Amino acid sequence: MTATIEERVAAHIKSASGADVIVNQVKLLTGGACQENFKVDVTLDGTATTFVLRSDAPTKLPGSIDRKEEFGVLERAAAAGVRTPKARWLGRGVVRDGGYAYLMDWVTGEAIGRKVTSAKELAGARAKLPGELGRELAKIHSVRPMREPDVNGSARALEPGFEPAQHTLRHMRASIDAIHGPRPALELIHRWLTEHAPTGEDVVLVHGDFRTGNFMVGPDGLVAILDWEFSHWGSRYMDLAWVCMRDWRFGQLDLPVGGFGARAPFYGAYEKESGVTLDPTLLYYWEIVGNLNWAIGSVYQSERYVYGGEDEFELVAIGRRAAEMELEALRLIEKGKI
Amino acid sequence: MQDAPTKETLLLALAKFLITEVRPVVTDSRLSFRLLIAANLAGIVAQECAGEDDQNRAELARLTALFTELDGEMTAPAAATLPTRKKEARAIALGNEKLAKGIASGAMDAAPGGPVFAHVKQTLTEKLAMDNPRFDAKRDLP
């Protein structure tokens, strides 16, 4: 690839859209572990506009999907009425050879966790968020696996006997086995979850990282649901519990929904939109799953530094935080309810 | 043994320097956040230097109560030439290996209220006292 990134993006948009394109600037915003985001300023048929270009990174995190799968998920979510930036023009090799990339409408707002939970100008938004998030999540979960098109491996999730909890337990088992050195706390939590695993759960589209920090908020409330790279087919309760976990409350421990709201309006809005009556036992179970998942994730981040040759010191700092999620899971197990 | 200042003092001085002298002149918000993490890491290591001997001894005592065979590990020939701190670390690693296996296989009772659960919880509490002293493990949450 000898052309500049501006030239490649211009050629891609032109061939995908047929519009007259001038790319004014392509600027790297964030380089994540599994995707890169660029801000793209363009003039489309004479009109100036801004997009986000999302591209596959050279590496991938376990459990994450590529931009092609993500694009398919976003199309399904948008069709279900989920508030998410419109995704367009999926292509291959736009940013790097072999990697997928697509453009997404630029949305403005605040996504940084501590600002969402404490910025003064978002006080009104925080009052509305639990209800809005409950309704959005119900819409996300209205997307069901299908054989054709096989979005993000959905055909596999339709196989008889597919149990979301078992699927998650197997995934976490493999992750614990890959960790260097014994971790009795992770083993204890995994065993408790194995002994208490529910069966017969619905299989729905799970966002997979539904928490404060991954949705954009403006003064009037929710703007858009972002960061779909961990979406998969599984239990609705995974998303319902994840946003309530202790670590995603950003210090506002008495506000269980994302550090800004009570549980009742969130669950109530979800039940009303979905027509599903939520089971407190499953909300409790999956909040423990969430803590184990994020404890494993924290250990994995530091292992990338220690054994994976990644030279990023925030990764190594996260490793010691695993004990917080481990202890929180133990607290929940001892308490017997959320 | 080194003369004073101790390693804890050096690390806390480093953390204080980063926060009081470097951070105020850093205008980039990402770098400022990373400086906080760096200072926090120095603080964690300082806590660990001060407390690790007691922490390790307590963990080993609890592990030995669960696995009486660990009793012999401190005097085992393989450990004979090691300094006490390394002998303890070796015995703890062995104990945790046994514990992880015992829990995973179902051979040990790991239910709340039992000694295994109590040990794992106590060990995490002691770790967090160093890694994040602000974490309130006793607080009930809604």
Plain-language structure description:
The complex is a heterodimer of chains A (338) and B (142). Chain A is of the alpha+beta class. Chain A is 44% helix and 17% strand. In chain A, the strands form three sheets. Chain A has a five-stranded antiparallel beta sheet, with helices on both faces. In chain A, strands 6-9 form a two-stranded antiparallel sheet. Chain B is mainly α and 142 residues long. Chain B starts with 6 loop residues before the first helix and ends in an 11-residue tail after the last helix. The model of chain B has no long low-confidence stretch (mean pLDDT 93). Classes of the chains: A alpha+beta (338), B mainly alpha (142). The A-B interface holds A 181-185, 187-188, 190-192, 246, 253-254, 256, 262-263, 313-314, 317, 320-321, 323-324, 326-327, 330-331, 333-335 and B 34, 37-38, 40-41, 44, 93, 96-97, 99-101, 103-104, 106, 110-112, 116-117, 120-121, 123-125, 127-128, 131-132, 135, 137, 139-142.
Task: Put the structure in a nutshell.
By secondary structure, chain A is of the alpha+beta class. In chain A, 44% of the residues lie in helices and 17% in strands.
Sequence-ordered SSE layout with sheet pairings:
The complex is a heterodimer of chains A (338) and B (142).
Chain A: H1 5-17, E1 21-31, E2 35-44, E3 47-56, H2 67-79, E4 87-92, E5 100-105, H3 113-118, H4 123-141, H5 154-157, H6 164-178, H7 184-195, E6 204-206, E7 215-218, E8 221-225, E9 232-234, H8 236-242, H9 263-274, H10 280-306, H11 313-319, H12 322-335
Antiparallel strand pairs in A: 1-2, 2-3, 3-5, 4-5, 6-9, 7-8
Chain B: H1 7-22, H2 29-66, H3 84-105, H4 115-131
